[in-house]
Specification:
eight-stranded antiparallel sheet, Thrombin, subunit H, six-stranded antiparallel β-barrel, TRYPSIN_SER, 24 strands, alpha+beta, GMP Synthetase, Chain A, domain 3, 399 residues, 3 domains, Peptidase alpha-lytic pro domain protein, zymogen, signal
């Protein structure tokens, strides 16, 4: 079956946008907005995402709005089917310009009716998601012992029901797979030109005192620059999350105006690629991401599916959109391997590291690294935000 587009089109772009990007008011409960819930001046956040999707995904405004609605519904259906299918679940993804098709893989043909009843398309496969994940983790363990220099990344590819290994030298990658003990029937090696690298850069920056995702920050008073991810809190302390490779122990940060900003409280790289900074009283944590035309208000951190549209903000290349290609990807940088990343076809540039990635108004993660650039096109790798929040006991600042 097809995820219905009729309702998305019938309500019109403005109504669909309101349904996706607003939270219903609760009658009789007056609110006193604090600094992190103040309204964004002069901008419809839904329009910001729709405009970027039109530019980068080649969609019309109506298609972009329909895609956001379909992807939101697909995420809810996927969660229900994951629970119902149990050990037979083998992954899910969306397809089509408006994400109108939800594909759900299972190893049990007898459960096809359950999948169809939810409006999704069943795909019968040989291996469960648990089996594929076990094969990938065998590669992760092998990389911890001896990192494969010519093997930049590997991941569970739910659409192929395989673990895919990218390699500049396939023969060396095959040896890496054999050494790992992973089931060779579950793994394929492909020749790849991806060259992952952390994206630190330098450039003149605008003045800002609000803490906003996508704005730049400097390490101490130097020239090394990364991007703010999402605003967070821990207890009474405000701050932001970013990439771990942007941090050093006890390092301080300054904002784009060179005003003292904060101090790194925790970081991890490689293995993971995340960090968080506690800011001082000069900076106010906002639930905002800087886009090409204004600010987007972050509402939550519900994970998106493979195939979903995502957009990224960065201090160098700005506001860019693309789609999720794979989840749970292991990426080998020269500094070491980082696991459980999201791979997208969004381009990125040095200086974008740590910047926020969203699906609609839902936080997905922060930029870890990339391959290629925004002139010829490229690939980017994203550290999931919910893992960061859990690792440091943080709460996402939302509007």
């Amino acid at each position: 079956m097809v995820i219905r587009r009729t309702a998305a089109f019938a309500c019109g772009l403005a109504a669909c946008a309101l349904a996706l990007f607003t939270v219903p008011a609760r009658a009789g409960l007056p609110t006193a907005p604090g600094p992190e819930t103040a309204p964004v001046p002069g901008l419809d956040p839904a329009a910001t995402v729709v405009e970027a999707m039109q530019r980068d995904l080649g969609l019309t405004a109506e298609q972009a709005a329909a895609r956001l609605a379909n992807e939101s519904r697909a995420a809810e259906i996927e969660a229900r089917l994951r629970a119902r299918l149990g050990g037979a679940f083998a992954g899910a993804w969306v397809t089509g310009d408006t994400a109108e098709h939800l594909m759900v893989a299972t190893t049990d043909a007898g459960q096809a009716g359950v999948i169809r009843a939810e409006g999704a398309h069943p795909v019968i496969v040989r291996r469960s998601l648990a089996e594929l994940t076990a094969a990938k983790r065998a590669l992760d363990r092998a990389a911890a012992d001896r990192a494969p220099a010519a093997t930049p990344l590997w991941y569970v590819d739910v659409r192929r029901n395989l673990v895919t290994v990218h390699a500049a030298d396939p023969a060396r990658a095959e040896a890496f797979v054999a050494r790992s003990g992973a089931d060779p029937r579950a793994v394929r090696v492909v020749r790849s030109g991806e060259r992952p690298r952390p994206l630190i850069g330098e450039r003149p920056l605008p003045l800002r005192y609000d803490l906003r995702g996508g704005d730049p920050f400097y390490l101490g008073g130097g020239s090394i620059r990364c991007s703010v991810g999402f605003s967070v809190r821990r207890g009474g302390t405000s701050g932001f999350v970013t990439a771990g490779h942007c941090a050093t122990a006890g390092a301080t940060t300054t904002g784009p105006n060179r005003v003292r900003q904060g101090t790194f409280q925790g970081w991890s790289f490689p293995g993971d690629d995340h960090a968080w900074v506690a800011v001082n009283e000069n900076w106010v944590a906002r639930p905002w991401v800087v886009t090409g035309t204004g600010l987007l208000t972050v509402r939550g951190s519900r994970p998106a599916l493979v195939g979903a549209a995502v957009c990224r903000a960065g201090a160098t290349s700005g506001w860019r959109c693309g789609t999720i290609r794979q989840l749970g990807v292991s990426v080998h940088y020269s500094q070491g391997t980082v696991h459980e990343l999201i791979r997208t076809d969004i381009c990125a540039e040095p200086g974008d590291s740590g910047g926020p990635v969203v699906a609609g108004n839902q936080a997905q993660g922060v930029l870890s690294g990339g391959s290629g650039d925004c002139v010829r096109g490229g690939t980017s790798y994203i550290q999931p935000v919910n893992e960061i929040l859990s690792a440091y006991g943080l709460t996402l600042v939302t509007g």
